[in-house]
Amino acid sequence: MSEQTPESIASDFDRIAQLPDDPWDHNRLYLGVLLRELPPRVGDALEVGCGAGELTARLAARAERVIAIDLSHEMLAAARARCAGLANVELVGADALEYRLAPASFDAIASVPRRRGRDPSRRPPAAPPVLALLTGLAEAQSVSSAG
Predict the structure, then answer these.
(1) Residue 88 confidence (pLDDT) above 80
(2) 66 sits in which H/E element
(3) What radius of gyration do the chain's Cα atoms show?
(4) All domains of the chain in start order, with CATH
(5) Rounded distance, CA 59 to CA 38, Å?
(6) pLDDT > 60? residue 51
(7) pTM for the whole thing?
(8) pLDDT value for 30
(9) CA 104 to CA 143: how far, in whole Å?
(10) Strand (E) or helix (H) holding 136
(11) Terminal CA-to-CA distance of the chain, rounded, Å?
């Protein structure tokens, strides 16, 4: 298997976005767990890999502002449809590893690992670079909050 690039990952998720919606998706179960870890209200929230915007819309109900980033144009189209009318949501088509984010500028940072797909050989790999980005942002947030 060749190394994945931002373009190949976006292409994979563009294909995944075309699959029929699965009424039972483990990500939906995880959303509840993730949301229970957040306070009832937050200022600015960042979602990395927003996909079709399910978590984005739920974050918008609790946050002053949500910036949701995804590589896939098809996923962003689904997120735009789901988040239509939510004035506090900004959807960004970008590679989160390249997108300029100010350290310590978010009250909440979230990412749901997407493991959806029928063909295991075509599933996107685990995302250690994104996890490193999230860890770095969280550490910068922690240092800034303490200082």
Answers:
(1) yes
(2) strand 63-70
(3) 15
(4) 6-146 (3.40.50.150)
(5) 9
(6) yes
(7) 0.71
(8) 73
(9) 8
(10) helix 128-146
(11) 45
